[in-house]
Automatic annotation (TrEMBL):
It is found in: Cytoplasm, Perinuclear region; Endoplasmic reticulum; Golgi apparatus. The keyword Cytoplasm applies. It comes from Anhinga anhinga. It holds the Pfam family Sedlin_N. This is Trafficking protein particle complex subunit 2-like protein. GO terms for biological process: endoplasmic reticulum to Golgi vesicle-mediated transport. Keywords: Cytoplasm, Endoplasmic reticulum, ER-Golgi transport, Golgi apparatus, Transport. The keyword Coiled coil does not apply. Belongs to the TRAPP small subunits family. Sedlin subfamily. InterPro entries: Longin-like_dom_sf, Sedlin, TRAPPC2L.
Length: 140
């Protein structure tokens, strides 16, 4: 499992969706994700108006640790996506991470279009879970 955690956070930084594989070190990953949200906010404020002008949603590598690499993505509505990847996986390239975020964003958009979904609620969707699981397994 090269992708260990996929997280979607609201503009106020509370989690809307968390999927971690394997689940043994889940608490450690929660800490890693929350510390990365500070880096996301720094990158967004540093980009400022340039982010709006370029429409570049992918933030790239937020920071590497000894064991993991943390990547970020932010939507136009300031919803943040964070992915923690195993550092030992050297086959995973930046453009593959970018396409995974795009896929995640498209599925998130589908959920937002559901008239029964209340924006800001946690995401409980079997179809979304299946998409995330297949995405995580696809990069193995």
């Amino acid at each position: 499992w090269p992708v260990l955690v996929s997280v979607i956070c609201s503009p106020q930084n509370y989690p809307l969706y968390i999927r971690s594989v394997p689940t043994e070190n889940e608490l450690k990953f929660h800490y890693t994700v929350h510390t990365s949200l500070d880096v996301v906010d720094e990158k967004i404020s540093a980009m400022g108006k340039a982010l709006v002008d370029q429409r570049e949603l992918y933030l790239g590598l937020l920071y590497p640790t000894e064991d993991y690499k943390v990547y970020g993505y932010v939507t136009n509505s300031k919803v943040k996506f964070v992915m923690v990847v195993d550092s030992s996986n050297t086959a995973l390239r930046d453009n593959e991470i970018r396409s995974m975020f795009r896929k995640l964003h498209n599925s998130y958009t589908d959920i937002m279009c559901n008239p029964f979904y209340n924006p800001g609620d946690r995401i409980h969707s079997r179809a979304f879970d299946n998409m995330v699981n297949s995405m995580m397994m696809q990069v193995c």
